[in-house]
Design brief:
By secondary structure, the protein is α+β, with helices and mostly antiparallel strands. Helices cover about 45% and strands about 25% of the residues. Helix 8 runs antiparallel to helix 9. It starts with a helix and ends in an 8-residue tail after the last strand.
């Protein structure tokens, strides 16, 4: 409603009857206070507080205000009557006739009524909003209390008392009808009195949240509104069943059960450390891993037989830094490689440290084999490219050869032009040789790599194979931490396969013989897309394409795509394929831009 329309309505209210009708039909509570009593209330005001108009008219205004808010409301009334303030906007609470609290949003203004000061005000019932806010605050307090359950129960050193304490905290914090806590040490029910051991569980326990037990013959009359969550921590299985009609976030309840399971595990660990030192030493001595116990000062106080075999000498009494480089996670002895783990333990209240050596020679050999296969694939590609590279070198070499005799006879501008042509041909040869050597040689490690440069360098290496292919590139400068040579190998392998696919479908030059390559950034990832319109692949081929030694080419080794997959995975990336038989294929390589890599 605009201002003009509002003014028209006000002008038409020419009589008290018109104003009275407007107040009576209003959907907010309207009142007039004079001499601290209610002079007028409209029907909506009466409905809000459950009184009749006769009951409210003449009643002291503060009698219906909540006792805790009476001083605030009284001061606001007095200031307006005295003219100290013109109006007030606040949220006092009122009491209904039956004593219930109503939260309101009140707006009151000083007016003149019967030629004397009065207050005209409106009330809006906002009880639902305030109750929801208070319930949320209550729930937040409950969550805060129960999230700290681990700190509370961690002080309990007796398992039974720990379970009882946990049940009581949950019961009082969530105000539920009962708590059933199932642990490896039994099932415990708490309903506000004592913790009771339960032999037979209700049929609804262990299932998802149910409104009531679905079994009509269930002997447990209190099985109504059940919430079940469970957690397993290092063999300690704890499950919590709440008998409540209130829904609590499952994630939060899992945190509570997690805390209980961890606390029970801590007690279990303490028991094992206290009563099972003999068992520990038996495991220590019979372990297939080399193990050494180190005291707080860093001196080796005990080793098992396997550790002696690995190190080849008695190291008891030596300082740990004299034997192991604890800043490294590997230890080498003779022709074996061991993973070095160091972790604290407490034996007989002594804080010690255990050094453990696990034989990972086989895994290391597998990594070396993978690198050798990748390097072999790289050399195989280089060999395949050699003929094309020779052809590419012959073209600029011919320019140099033909221009040398002319150079002897040329003079002036003609001579400068011949020299310039020969220099360009020489630079072309240098670029071709440089690209090939950079590709063949073993990669020197991780560095900042621009994907645009990787694609362009790879396409130069394959340029002799791309003469009859329409190459369309959309290349953005996207930097990643990577092995440049390995990323080039990925691009070359996929592009080489795409060229083969296109040649199978279009043996001669064709406008549809298209290869598309894109590089771009998406969030924290760098993307390379390589798409061709070749013969595509069947679903079976797509599923097996990254398997080692799988190939659809007669001359293929079956290692190319396997190497591609492993390089991408080593860089923390993902590779996916979209393809339909007869319609081409798209390879999508996703690489993290910031993820630190491990040397291959």
């Amino acid at each position: 409603m605009d201002d003009d329309m509002g003014e028209d309505i006000i002008k038409n209210l020419t009589t008290e009857k018109d104003l009275y009708t407007l107040f009576e039909k209003a959907l907010v509570g309207i009142y007039v206070i004079q001499d601290d009593v209610l002079k007028y209330v409209n029907p909506y005001f009466c409905r809000m507080l459950g009184y009749t108009r006769d009951e409210l008219t003449g009643m002291k205004a503060l009698d219906i205000v909540h006792p805790e808010d009476r001083q605030m409301v009284g001061e606001a009334i007095e200031k307006r009557i005295k003219g100290e303030i013109e109006e007030v906007h606040y949220t006092p609470r009122f009491l209904t006739k039956d004593g219930k609290t109503v939260y309101t949003e009140a707006l009151g203004v000083r007016v003149c009524y019967d030629k004397r000061p009065a207050i005209l005000g409106t009330l809006i019932d906002v009880t639902r909003y305030f109750e929801e806010r208070e319930e949320q605050m209550r729930l937040n307090e409950i969550l805060l209390t129960l999230r700290n359950i681990n700190q509370i129960i961690a002080r309990e050193k007796d398992r039974t008392k720990l379970i009882e304490t946990a049940c009581r905290i949950i019961f009082s914090g969530l105000r539920c009808g009962g708590v059933l806590l199932s642990t490896p040490y039994g099932n415990f029910l708490y309903r506000g009195d004592n913790v009771v051991y339960v032999d037979v569980l209700p049929p609804c326990v262990g299932k998802e949240r149910v409104l009531e037990c679905p079994h009509s013959s269930c002997p447990f009359e209190w099985c109504r509104g059940v919430m079940n969550v469970a957690f397993d921590y290092k063999g300690i299985h704890a499950s919590l069943s709440l008998f409540t009609s209130v829904f609590y976030p499952t994630e939060f309840l899992k945190e509570v059960v997690d805390d209980i399971a961890v606390a029970l595990y801590s007690l279990k660990l303490e028991d094992e450390l206290r009563w099972s030192e003999v068992k520990f030493r038996s495991i220590f001595q019979q372990s297939d891993d080399g193990m050494a116990i180190v005291d707080e000062d860093g001196k080796i106080i005990e080793v098992n037989e396997k550790m002696g075999e690995i190190v080849g000498k008695n190291i008891e009494g030596m300082w740990v830094h004299e034997v192991f480089n604890t800043s490294s996670d590997e230890f080498k002895s003779c022709d074996r490689v061991f993973q070095l783990f160091s972790f604290p333990v407490e034996i007989g209240k002594k804080k010690l440290r255990v050094i453990r050596l696990t034989d990972i020679t086989a895994e290391k050999e597998k990594e070396v084999l993978q690198e050798k296969l990748a390097h072999a694939d790289r050399l195989a590609i280089a060999g395949t490219l050699a003929g094309g590279v020779i052809h590419e070198i012959n073209n600029p070499l011919s320019v140099i050869t033909l221009n040398l005799p002319l150079l002897r006879e040329a003079r002036g501008d003609e001579k400068e032009e011949i020299i310039r042509d020969m220099e360009e041909a020489t630079q072309r040869i240098q670029n071709i040789v440089k690209d090939l050597l950079e590709f063949v040689k073993r990669d020197r490690g991780i560095g900042d790599v621009d994907l645009k440069d990787v694609v362009e360098s790879s396409l130069r290496i394959l340029s002799h194979k791309l003469k009859n292919v329409v190459v369309k590139c959309e290349l953005e400068n996207v930097s990643v931490s990577a092995h440049r040579g390995k990323l080039e190998q990925v691009v070359i392998n996929i592009v080489d396969n795409a060229i083969w696919s296109l040649n199978q479908k279009y043996p001669e030059m064709n406008e549809n013989k298209i290869l598309r390559i894109r590089t771009y950034k998406e969030g924290d990832n760098a993307i390379i897309e390589i798409e061709d319109r070749g013969i595509g692949m069947s679903e079976d081929v797509r599923k097996r394409i990254f398997d080692p030694f799988f190939t659809t080419k007669e001359e293929g080794t079956g290692l190319g795509m396997w190497v591609v997959y492993n390089i991408v995975k080593t860089h923390g990336g993902e590779i996916s394929i979209e393809s339909k038989e007869g319609e081409g294929a798209k390879f999508i390589i996703t690489l993290p831009t910031e993820l630190p890599l491990q040397e291959l």
